[in-house]
Every structure is written in C-alpha cells, then in structure tokens.
From TrEMBL:
All residue ranges annotated as the TNase-like domain in the record: 19-157
Organism listed in the record: Planktothrix tepida PCC 9214
Name of the featured protein: Putative SNase-like nuclease
InterPro entries: SNase_OB-fold_sf, Staphylococal_nuclease_OB-fold
Annotated Pfam families: SNase
First-level EC class: hydrolase
Domain of life of the source: Bacteria
Gene3D superfamilies in the cross-refs: 2.40.50.90
Keyword Hydrolase among UniProt keywords: yes
GO MF annotations, alphabetized: 3' overhang single-stranded DNA endodeoxyribonuclease activity
Keyword presence, Hydrolase: yes
The entry's keywords: Hydrolase
EC assignment: 3.1.31.1
Length: 170
C-alpha cells in the first residue's frame, strides 16, 4: 500500500484488479495497489487460513464466498466510478461504487449478499451529511428491507449471523 492523500468526494474511474470479499476490492490508485471498501454495507466473512472451523464458521464462509463471487461477476474487468469518503482503521478507502448509474452497494443488499452497516452518526450527526448521503442511507435500508421480506440470500438462512456479530466471536 502506498502513501496517498484523500480528497473527500473525489470521483475516480477504476478497474478492480482483485476482489477480496463482497465489500472490498483492490485497484491501482496513485501508483499503488489500494484497498477500497464499500461504505455502509457489510458482506459476510470469508474463510481465514488456519482457522478451525465450526458450523457457524462454515455457514458464514459459504455466504461470504457467494457474496465475493457475486461482486466478482458484477465488476471484474469493468470500470467503476468510485466516490471516496474516508479511510477506515484498516487503511481501506471507504467509498461508494457505481457501475454506470447503478450503485453496487444497493445491488449486493437487494440480493441479500450484504447487510446494512450504518453508523450511529448517520442519525445523530446527519447535519454533516449531504443530501446524496441521506438518499443513499435511506435506499440502503429500503433494499435490505426488500431482501428480508423476500427472503433473499442470507435472509433465507435462519442460521446466518450478521457479519459484525460474527466478528465479535472470532
């Protein structure tokens, strides 16, 4: 990972080089392989090497692999519009992803291969959000609600554990 300076709300046109999981990919940015993490969604975890697997792990990893493959199918080899927002504690660039006019976070939610991951500040600090942020946050909840009601993807599996809750166990 190279050293770079973020410009919030900067629009980039990128072609992903590698899909890490359902909410993170690597692309060339400022001359370095850089991780881009989808903002406000959370995909199921994928298998980590060396981990002894339980039934809960196998279930999470199954959905994680499906999510990763779905994202790979959607974006591999294609140019995306990526809107930068900030970096996270893992030095990934939190961003919104578009293929043409279609938001990829919403696509993953609608098919049930990601869950909403909206921080409390969206409610409590909404004065700092743009109108587009508010629209996206609302649509994220709408798309997740559709997937839940339609029992799509992870919402069809009574054994599935929300990724943030799963990570607390490992």
């Amino acid at each position: 990972m190279g050293v770079f300076y973020l410009i919030k709300m900067q629009k980039l046109i990128l072609t992903p080089n590698f899909i890490i999981d359902g909410d993170t990919f690597i692309a060339e940015y400022n001359g370095a392989a850089t991780k881009f993490r989808a903002r406000w969604i959370d995909a199921p975890e994928i298998q980590k090497l060396g981990k002894i697997s339980t039934e809960t792990d196998l279930n999470q990893w199954k959905w994680g692999e499906l999510s990763r493959r779905y994202l790979d199918h959607l974006i591999q080899g294609k140019q995306l519009t990526v809107i930068i927002h900030e970096t996270d504690p893992y030095n990934r660039i939190l961003s919104d992803w578009y293929l043409g006019r279609s938001n990829l976070q919403l696509q993953l939610l609608r098919v049930g291969l990601a869950v909403a991951f909206l921080e409390p500040r969206i409610v409590y600090e909404s004065r700092n959000l743009t109108k587009l942020d508010i629209i996206l946050a609302t649509r994220i909840l709408q798309h997740q609600y559709y997937a839940i009601q339609s029992q799509k993807g992870v919402w069809s599996d009574a054994q599935f554990m929300i990724p943030s809750e799963y990570r607390k166990m490992i």
